Amino acid sequence: MGTDVRVGVIDSGCTPEQASALLGARRFWLEDGQLREGDMLPDQLGHGSAVLAGLQREAGPVPVLLAQVFGAQASTSALQVAAALLWLVEAGVTLVNLSLGLQQDRPVLHQACAEALAAGVLLCASSPAQGGPVYPASYPGVIRVTGDARCAPGQWSWLGTRQADFGGYVGAGGRAGASLGCAALSGRIAALLRDEPGMGHQQVHDWLRHHAAFTGPERRGAGHG
To answer: What is the enclosing helix (H) or strand (E) of 87?
Structure first.
């Protein structure tokens, strides 16, 4: 049961060992202002490798497709992310993890997310615990996830704040908290969909909210009540 669950990841790539187990992979980059696509290259940032490991730790055995939109630098474009997302949708993914956030709202990315959601694909995107809006997390229908230091492996929090819907496990050290928290929750959703195929977006959202280990944002220090 659940053999139809496929997870898409849009990030910086992965390790050669991880790549050998992927269902598919594609690289999207800009060259002279033009969108190009081709074979995936090794992960130069290590970000995608960590995100994929965190997702698979929670998801267990699920098929994964990876779209590479980062190279040697931690910067990408809305055009690359949009193209990667549409490629994953065409490949039949159930869920896409986007542990990234662009500061500018671009129509091309907004439209790609709308098309993915209309096709029934769940989108999980990272959102910082503080600061301004980022995209695609701020688009309607996208599950917004940040890191939550309270969460142990297998746990998540229901936040319901202006910044994020849920918080996820970030691991030791807490680096790249929103990215890893998003990956962990995406993995948990993938496991849920494997066990409960056919759950819709609202059903998944409600299930996560009802089974959250924590409710409300973290209280740091002796903050104001």
So the answer is: helix 78-90
